[in-house]
Amino acid sequence: QVQLVESGGGLIQAGGSLRLSCAASGITFSNYALKWFRQAPGKEREFVAAISRSGGLTYYTGSVKGRFIISRDNAKNTVYLQMDSLAPADTAVYYCNAKLYGSADWLRGKYWGQGTQVNVSS
């Protein structure tokens, strides 16, 4: 069974930092690009960040550039999202997503985690 399990969310003050983790099992981790999405109440799920199989390429949505860093450790089957300078607008449920290399999927991969809540107080 494929599982992606996020952790590291919580309540944080504006300007603070959190590091989210997503541990994967049931897949050959190094064959997948890893991504983070988030969904705020009343809004659609949006792309946040992505990282290539080797970790050599990363991409971020404009609102988090310079504040968030995505990384991965293939030996640990884990992808991370370091979030600095957090603001109330970052409040959302954050989801991990895995996309198989060579698949026809444009942005979203097949597998999702259950999400971890991030609440940023003003």
Description:
- The chain is mainly β and 122 residues long.
- Helices cover 0% and strands 52% of the residues.
- It has strands at residues 3-7, 10-13, 18-25, 32-39, 46-51, 58-60, 68-73, 78-83, 92-100, 111-112, 116-121.
- The termini are far apart.
Number of strands: 11
Helix count from the secondary structure assignment: 0
Through-space gap between termini:
40 Å
Describe the largest sheet: 7 strands, mixed
In the predicted model, the low-confidence regions spanning at least 5 consecutive residues are none
Query: What percentage of amino acids are in beta strands?
Result: over 45%
Give the topology string: H per helix, E per strand: EEEEEEEEEEE
The radius of gyration is 14 Å
Mean pLDDT: 96
The 3D shape can be described as globular
The amount of helix comes to under 10%
Structural class: mainly beta
